[in-house]
Design brief:
The chain is built from 19 helices and 22 strands. With 621 residues, the chain is α+β, with helices and mostly antiparallel strands. The strands form 5 sheets. Strands 6-9-10-22-21-20-17-11 form an 8-stranded mixed beta sheet, with helices on both faces. It has a 5-stranded mixed β-barrel with strand order 1-2-3-5-4. Strands 12-13-16-14-15 form a 5-stranded antiparallel beta sheet. The longest helix is centred in the first third of the chain and has 23 residues.
Length: 621
């Protein structure tokens, strides 16, 4: 028999009754039932119940073991009695009567529990991550992550892609975040950069004549952490294709992405054909370029109902600014003053002056109500009378100021009914759109309108190629600088730069951007013109992007692709709220690795080798 085990702790079944087996694993839990000891033994694969009675040679050892000790157990497989079967365990019909037990490794008192799933301070969890990873949910998430990546590789191979690796030590590039720099020992005063993404390399792979590339790529960005983005590093399914247009990328990758979700959705519905939503439409309808389409709320422009109205706040905004609009955020079932007041208070907590609202209720004509008609009817008759002759009455300060006719026109435009509400935001949409989107999200969640048991995916297309940088009073790239502008060189030479759209697209799911891509700019003159628009001259382009610019001089195929965020996809599939719950060894919110003690100070010898000297930060008064 093997030194440590004949079976895993998940293998044994009723068919194994009578067999002598050997198991090794961690002591998950010890229970003393009147002198009879029950030990739940756990390994990577599962859990098996061990029984040690006072007559067993192993009983003396069994009395000493504690949680998370590593032990080996030899014993006989026996069937559990009907009343003791555990239907929640694959091994729940059997137990092992221990005959011999060996302690392979004892454990000190634990700094955090492994049994169960209690909340525990994050700094302790990260410092003792090797213990945290033994917890059932986290352990399961990490295994699922590995399976998702394996499925990605399988699906990409089936779609005709080949995996190629790209360098980790490279040059700095303008991907939109700060680089991690690595000082060169051999080249004094110069630095490598860790890749924010393999963007330039994968384009060079296309220029080199390879056709369909993919990679499970590590990416490094020195940016602040948040719930859906870890500090330091992340992984993406990176891919590129030659001789393609935008639609080719969609037709190729949509089945791959849908298949990955369907494989791990555990029966939850996944979008069939992914809708294509232009960026401008997404911002207008949902207030976000990564809308959660499980939320049925769609915002609408209701400006005309407020022009010249008695609600002077909105009327004056519309009259004073030609860019101003009033947007409605319909909220079905939200028609109570209590809910509307809560939304108003939330808005004030977000730094807004408030959130105007109207809510509707159905009432009978005043004459009928006064005649006492209702008192003579049963409840069903009253309900029918409301359906037949009731009228909608708008409530709230806005309804009082704009009058019945305008209030009813708003209700009809939005298709609202008895018990529904609507919230309003006014001003320049570019300034309030983010808040409007947040209000839409808040209302959908508060009213439980969001169907959380499904995956809704969509392509967001036609992103602006440029955007206005208000701080620096200049034009900047709106997204990826290496994307092909719609209209090409002719569009770049026109006067209205901010109206140019890019062949840029994102894939979104349930309110998260899970992939981003585009058709690349493969023409050197177009590349130079695009960078000149944001302030780079030709010499700077040649210096900073020399490899790519040079490659474009020697026959570059039209190409495009995308990169899908593995961490976010896994987070969605397992239902986690934070990326740390699907990452094996994450940093904390301060970008520190509490387990390994990184970042750490360099020794004087290391600094000398790199020709570096630390300049102490000046102390602030």
């Amino acid at each position: 028999m093997h030194r440590y085990r004949s079976h895993s702790c998940a293998e044994l079944r009723k068919s194994d009754v009578g067999a002598t087996v050997r198991l090794s694993g961690w002591v998950h839990r010890v229970r003393d039932h009147g002198g009879l000891l029950f030990i739940d033994l756990r390994d990577h694969y599962g859990l098996t119940q061990i029984v040690a009675d006072p007559d067993s040679p192993s009983f003396k050892t069994a009395e000493t073991v504690r949680g998370e000790w590593v032990i080996r157990v030899d014993g006989e497989v026996k069937a559990r009695t009907a009343e003791t079967i555990n239907p929640n365990l694959p091994t729940g019909e059997v137990e092992i009567f221990a005959r011999d037990m060996e302690v392979l490794s004892a454990a000190k008192e634990l700094p955090l529990p492994v049994f169960g799933e209690p909340d525990y301070p994050e700094d302790i969890r990260l410092k003792y991550r090797f213990l945290d990873l033994r917890r059932e949910t986290l352990h399961k998430n990490i295994v699922q992550r590995t399976r998702v990546i394996a499925e990605m590789r399988r699906a990409m191979g089936e779609a005709g892609f080949t995996e190629y690796s790209t360098p980790i030590l490279t040059a700095s590039s303008p991907e939109g975040a700060r680089d991690f720099l690595v000082p060169s020992r051999l080249h004094e005063g110069k630095f490598y950069a860790l890749p924010q993404a393999p963007q330039i390399y994968k384009q060079l792979i296309m220029v080199s004549g390879f056709d369909r590339y993919f990679q499970i790529a590590p990416c490094f960005r020195d940016e602040d952490p948040r719930a859906d983005r870890l500090p330091g590093e992340f992984y993406q399914l990176d891919l590129e294709m030659s001789f393609v247009e935008q639609e080719d990328v969609f037709q190729t990758m949509e089945p791959v992405m849908r298949g990955i979700f369907e494989a791990f959705a555990e029966g939850k519905p996944v979008t069939g054909v992914f809708p294509r939503i232009p960026y401008d439409e997404a911002m207008r309808k949902y207030g976000s370029d990564k809308p959660d389409l499980r939320n049925p709320i769609v915002m609408e422009d209701v400006s005309e109902h407020f022009r010249g109205s008695g609600f002077k706040v909105f009327a004056n905004i519309l009259a004073g600014d030609p860019k101003a609009e009033v947007w409605a955020i319909p909220a079905r079932t939200g028609g109570s003053r209590a809910f509307c007041d809560r939304m108003n208070s939330w808005a004030q907590g977000e730094g807004q002056p408030g959130l105007g609202y109207i809510f509707w209720r159905k009432v009978l004509h005043t004459s009928e109500a006064q005649a006492g008609v209702l008192s003579e009817m049963d409840s069903e008759a009253v309900e029918r009378r409301f359906e037949e002759s009731g009228v909608f009455e708008g409530a709230g300060p806005i309804a009082k100021n704009i009058g019945e006719e305008r209030t009813e026109a708003i209700r009809r435009q939005l298709g609202l009914e008895d018990g529904d509400a609507c919230f309003f935001v006014a001003g320049d949409p570019k300034k309030f759109v983010a808040f409007a989107g947040a209000a839409r999200t808040r209302a959908g969640e508060e009213l439980d309108l969001v169907d959380r048991d499904r995956f809704e995916l969509a392509w967001i297309v036609d992103f602006p190629f440029f955007e206005w940088n208000e701080d620096e009073k200049k034009i900047d790239f709106g997204h990826n600088p290496f994307t092909m502008p719609q209209g090409g060189l002719e569009a770049l030479e026109g006067d209205d730069k901010l109206s140019i759209k890019a062949f840029q697209y994102d894939l979104v799911c349930n309110g998260y951007e899970i992939a981003s891509g585009g058709i690349r700019n493969h023409l050197p003159d177009v590349m130079v013109k695009a960078f000149e628009t944001v302030g780079f001259d030709r010499a700077t382009v040649e210096e900073r992007f020399g490899g790519l610019y040079r490659a474009f001089q020697y026959g570059a195929p039209p190409h495009g692709g995308m990169a899908a965020g593995i961490d976010r996809i896994v987070m969605l599939l397992v239902g986690a709220k934070n990326l740390r719950e699907i990452t094996m060894f994450p940093m904390n919110q301060q970008a520190q690795d509490l387990l390994m003690g990184a970042p750490s100070e360099a020794t004087p010898a290391q600094l000398r080798e790199l020709n570096l000297r630390l300049a102490p930060t000046a102390k602030k008064d």
